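If your schedule permits, I should be very grateful for your opinion on a structural question. I would ask you to consider whether the tokens describe a fold that such a sequence might reasonably adopt. Thank you for your consideration; the sequence and its tokens are set out here.
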Amino acid sequence: MDKRPKTELNNDAGDDMIIGRNAVLEAIKNGRQTDTVYVASGERTGSIGMILGKARELGIVIKEVDRRKLDAMCGGANHQGIAARASAIEYAQVDDILEKAGQAGEKPFIIILDGIEDPHNLGAIIRSADASGAHGVIIPKRRGASLTYAVGKASAGAVEYVPVARVSNLAQTIDELKSKGLWIYGADMDGSRWDSVDYSGPVALVISNEGKGISRLVREKCDFIVSLPMKGKINSLNASVAAGILMYEVIKHR
């Protein structure tokens, strides 16, 4: 018989959801990799304040959501005003990605994702990163999907082989990569043809949400902006499709 707290047991919620006050508190205290804590709007009674305090200490993202949305996320389970989403796998550090390239004797090839919110897109991009030989993926702590079980499934297991680093500030991370010799290529509108630039050096490829494009500050940090031709009526490609095309263009130059 399953001995977990009843608040955590629910067949309709995803395997990555931790539901209820005791379950969330114990997960955080025991060091379980946790992406986000969700708290019902206005809910601060009982132990919730303490849970949120511990989450802040550990740098876990906290999101306040409408109670009905939290009900839906938890599949109708008694969440007691709070739930958390667990990571499918432990995050890497940016230096781990660079070290992986060094150990392989290769120039770094990194994928940076700016505002990719769909977990299926994130999973597909990680799968393409593995197939194309990219050394790792960098995602933002906020404004983007995280390493949930849905992402792991969409990646077809590639999350086990592609290190993913999660950073607080993409622009600052790009500056650090540039200081280490990487050239930054952003995929966005109004750029040079995707096949007209040289990707043979150390490369970081920035892929953004197809609806919003690269954020202003990140775009300003890019050394090159490249674009794919749009021949049809739709003016953008799905982010994971664009990423795959550009990754294989990088391979061609390497």
